[in-house]
Amino acid sequence: MSTLSAFKNFTDSLDEQEQLMPVLFIGHGSPMNGIEDNEFSQRWTQMAKEIPVPKAVFVVSAHWFTRGTHITAMDFPETIHDFGGFPQALFDVQYPAPGNPQLAKDTAALIHTTDVGLAHDWGLDHGTWTVVRRMYPEATIPVLQLSIDYTKPPQYHYDLAKEIYALRKKGVLIIGSGNMVHNLRLVSWDKINTPGYGFDWALKMNDIFKELITSGTHDKLIKYENLGKEAMLAIPTPEHYLPLLYTLALQGSNDKVSFFNDKAVAGSLTMTSVKIGN
């Protein structure tokens, strides 16, 4: 079967199904989690075994911050090593998952908030491949990315995410990849290998985020700047936080919420992750 025929057959198979795919927000942390066998990466692997096998994976990554909204639309997205100062072994990693241009077009058509560009000059950045390769190491499931428009406010992103809810009905796993608490300027580097170590303000803010997520109080999470000085320490810039809003916007009325990898790292980061759905 030709590559184009395989893609066509895949797209034709995206019928609605009875069970909604869950939605994940994953605290991805250091790029090293992509190659290290640690408690965080092990939990990503286990999560893939606990949920239905997706027909595609659609990731909103903190590391594709753009003007306008774009979706990767190439047959085979490249593995992007968008970092520096790490061991060569990390740069050597390739994650050769296919893309799906037709699914990119179909998803763009779901979004009416804005015109969506079909991108051929990006790929899978480390907010995506470090996580997804631990979940689906065979690299046979198509993977797409949605960019985050840095010119728009949090409410805009939350509302846009609601427009792709239909993907959950078609077996597509949507992942927001970032970190709830992410302040690299205040990282305690001497504690980088001590999972669970968090500054008081980071732990407090992480607990507040979890309480608001559990209670479904999304409006306060959207207007996070009103949550006090701890919130501004936790979110000095929004790119790692906004993927959480994409995930929360996709919550249905009957979806359960649970947390995993709920630990602080290096004082000013949290790996706390969210599963929405059964």
From TrEMBL:
Instruction: Cite the InterPro entries for this sequence.
Output: Extradiol_dOase_DODA, Xdiol_dOase_suB
- The record's EC number reads 1.13.11.29
- UniProt entry keywords in alphabetical sequence: Dioxygenase, Metal-binding, Oxidoreductase, Zinc
Q: Which residues form the Extradiol ring-cleavage dioxygenase class III enzyme subunit B domain?
A: 37-259
Q: Name one GO molecular function term.
A: stizolobate synthase activity
Q: Which domain of life is it from?
A: Bacteria
Query: Gene3D superfamilies, alphabetically?
Result: LigB-like
Reply yes or no: does the keyword Oxidoreductase apply: yes
Tell me the cofactors it needs: Zn(2+)
PANTHER family named in the record: 4,5-DOPA DIOXYGENASE EXTRADIOL-LIKE PROTEIN
Assigned protein family? Belongs to the DODA-type extradiol aromatic ring-opening dioxygenase family.
The entry's protein name is 4,5-DOPA dioxygenase extradiol
Native species: Panacibacter ginsenosidivorans
